[in-house]
Amino acid sequence: MTAESIMSFRLVKLKPTDRVCDALRVMHVQQIRNLPVVDENDQFVGLFGIRRLTRLLLPKAAQMNLGLQDLSFMPDEMSEMSERIKEVSQRPVADFLEKKKRLMFCKPSTGFPEVLELLDQSVDTSLPVIVLKGKKKKLVGMVSAWDVVEKLLVNMCKMETASVVGVDDPEPGESEEEKAS
């Protein structure tokens, strides 16, 4: 089994110039945590996800490198978080993509064990599936932890159905000799 056998083909994509508020609407309506961002040639640019959005909601003191680690003393109201998201909502998603050094991806031919390992190591719950042609990265799908669970559940159900039906069992009224013929 490879990434291609479990990946999602119908992708909801963003353009680098799409605004953060538009991305949030898409994420909410589609119930998607990570959205791939592609350029006008459908080349993969990056990933905009819920993890990055969560970081944008943090107080500025926590967003800085070596910023505050303990925020328990800081009062924070919903209105303050709303102000922070309002500040960035009109900016393009390209300003807030996951950093490339943290971003992992796989190829359609990546084997299932490697996909599991990448998902385990990734800070996100999904991986872009990329076809590399020179320096170009064409996005062909996404694989999420949910895709893996869904595939496993489908296989488990097929195995249970086969054992209940008894694929090798004779039909009612059919003898073993009739089945063999």
Total of DSSP H or I helical runs spanning 4+ residues: 8
Evaluate the radius of gyration: 23 Å
Shape: globular
Strand order of the largest sheet: 1-2
Structural class, by secondary structure, is alpha+beta
| Unreliable residue runs | none
Euclidean distance between termini CA atoms: 34 Å
The profile of the biggest β sheet is: 2 strands, antiparallel
The percent range for strand residues is 15-25%
Order of helices and strands: HHEEHHHHEEHH
Averaged pLDDT: 84
Give the total of beta strands: 4
Which range best describes the helical content: under 10%, 10-25%, 25-40%, 40-55%, 55-70% or over 70%?
A: 40-55%
Would you write up a description of this structure?
- The structure is a single chain.
- This protein is of the alpha+beta class and 181 residues long.
- The protein is 41% helix and 15% strand.
- It has 8 helices and 4 strands, in the order H-H-E-E-H-H-H-H-E-E-H-H.
- Strand 1 (34-38) and strand 2 form a beta hairpin.
- The longest helix is centred in the last third of the chain and has 21 residues, at 145-165.
- It is globular.
- 18% of the residues are buried.
Give the SSE layout:
Blueprint: H1 3-6, H2 20-30, E1 34-38, E2 44-49, H3 50-57, H4 60-63, H5 78-89, H6 112-121, E3 126-133, E4 136-144, H7 145-165, H8 176-180
Antiparallel strand pairs: 1-2, 3-4
Question: What are the main properties of this structure?
Answer:
181 residues; 8 helices; two-stranded antiparallel sheet; single chain; two-stranded antiparallel ribbon; alpha+beta
Brief overview:
The protein is of the alpha+beta class. It has helices spanning 3-6, 20-30, 50-57, 60-63, 78-89, 112-121, 145-165, 176-180, and strands at residues 34-38, 44-49, 126-133, 136-144.
